[in-house]
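New to this. Please check both lines:
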Amino acid sequence: MNFLNYEKRRRIYRYFLYVLLFSGIIAIATSTWYMYFNRVPSTIKLRAEAHETVDFRVPATGDIFNQDETVEAFSNSIRLDFSKPVTFKTGTTDNNYIVDLKLFGIIPLKSVQIDIIRDTKLMPAGIPIGIYVKTKGILVVGIGEFEGDNGKTLSPARYILQQGDYIMSINGEMVDDKARMIEIISNGDGEALVFVIKRDEEEIELMISPEFNKAGEYKIGVWVRDNAQGVGTMTYIMEDGTFGALGHGINDVDISTLMILDSGSLYRTDIINITRGVNGAPGELTGFIEYSEHNILGEITDNTPYGIFGSINVNSKAIRDGDFIPIGLKQDIRRGPAKIICSIVGEPTSYDVEITEIFLENDNVNRGIVLKITDPALLSLTGGIVQGMSGSPIIQDNKLIGAVTHVLVQDSTSGYGIFIENMIVR
């Protein structure tokens, strides 16, 4: 009996070791696959009509295909070996390709898109800008309630409107400011109103019946916003007078939704106060903005996850004296010294930073670069990266490689940046 129990325990122990070994192999294989997956970006951008070399050192191979025609890009099949440097002789910007990579030539890794982009030179700006944007429609930031004239708690819009909806029209009239919206509701005599709203990408028609509040006014019980203001930093100016700034979109302060832009303007601004950042509490640049016609620097035409974009006034093209320099693509960036340009006191000034991490594959497009402020002068002034520095250009090897986007809350000396290629190709 004891012998049988011993054999049974030994079999169980052996089975347990097999399971443990198998689980360990699976875990190592999965982590290895994931490591190589992140080492190669899903999109590689290359300059047009140039010799471009990428070096990801990943043991993966794949055939290159034309993206549009889904045929081999060249007359003979060309297999790319990413375990060593690969040099491309690129054509025009009309040529874009796909490479289906397999790890060790067997295990599917990822499909990589290769985009050929126009070689571009930009003027790094680094100047503070005042921002004013109007939303396209009226953004619903919350659903509220109020006390009716009968003492009951009312909320006519509840379960009809949602946070993040854009009110586009009421009873067929386009509305672009909340004052007009309030006027229409107040003058509606409590009749049901037809609201056309934009929810995600869909336009929906809804009906809401306003109710009397305690003060005898018709209300529907919503919190709304029709504009946003703030201070940021201009990243670059192109030769045609267009600009890019911030490195991230303008989101609503309450619900963090990217605001749908109807119109917007850039204004000259002066930094009048600096709240130094400390670990756990980001600092802030406070600017004085005069919202007047003569103070406008340019027009904002696009608000995107990659930044705000538009054109500067003809008379403002010399906002900053500087040279146009090449861009650095993500595969050109290396860990090590770099500089950022920002205007903390007076003119745009270069400050030393250290690039500590580069995430070639990151779901968050605004956090591809991790950098640390090392310049004693900037640390003395701001304590590191502060709000208002978003958009500050990052320079390495005399190439514009990105823009500052966020500060690490727990380490005010460190933060994130976006690759410049994401800001110029949208």
In short: The chain has four helices and 31 strands. The longest strand covers residues 128-143. The helical segments are 2-39, 178-186, 376-382, 420-424. The two ends are 75 Å apart (CA to CA).
